[in-house]
Amino acid sequence: MLGTIFYCVLNMSIAACIVIAVLLVVRRIKPLPKRVIYPLWALALIRLAIPFSPPTGWSLFNYAGTLVKRVVSLDAIAQIQTQAQTQPPGNLVMMNFIGAAEQYAPVAYKTEALSRVFASASAIWAIVTISMLMTAIVLHALTRKELAKAASAGNNVYRTDMLLSPVVTGLIRPRIILPAALCEGSAEYRMILAHEHVHIRRRDNLWRGVGIAIACFHWFNPMSWIMLRAFFMDMELSCDEAVIRDYAPEERKAYAGTLLRYAEDKRQLVSSAFGRSGVKLRITGVLNYRKLSIIGAAASSLLLLIIAIALLTNPRA
Question: CA 229 to CA 234: how far, in whole Å?
């Protein structure tokens, strides 16, 4: 069972490398707002988490050539498990990039040498993955315990002198925790609350936790960590856009100044912080923000749909 899981994870990781590379290029298209880019990272997370998807002629992987060694139908695997005589047409398939398996569910390798190599590799992968997940859980629990000392200010807002930057903490029931020195009722206070409420409304901390967990499963793949960093950055950039979209130019300058003031990065695990790293890029984005026209919004939505179909679907057999 462990070998089968590891073999699937390897194939998902290779497929995700291509998806992540495409998204890293797409996110550099300047006219595209970050609120369009940010949801696209779900495509990479899905690729890293789910091995099967529908085959279409629109899939980018149709042009992968010999990189895809085999396309395996979910129904074909079910047929092996049930020893059925007939195989219904498959509507979900998995790509096999490695080409080391003779059959699937469970995976049987082509040679005994391959079997030994993958047995050892899967054991190492499992040990490191469990260790990283446990470390993430413990660090998050310690952070929650420390921030639990914050005093309630009402309306799901808490204050503490342990923080230099505002944060949203908690996965299921997130709370806004502000530095005690932040003046209540000030323009900065209102801007920060608006930013943190966007995080809560979108459940960004939950998605942050999902991203960290998936990256732990793919710890051996450098692209998964590059994806995680870009995902977190676009999360903050898109949140800034959501806050300032109705701001006047002077208000945007004030918001940029607030970002600079709270640029201290406390790096709480699975927490969205107002002053998280990448402040220079965020300030540039705020000061250069332009609203999309109706045509621009429609074109962006169409592009998002095309990219989603191309990256989420698998090639035809």
Answer: 9
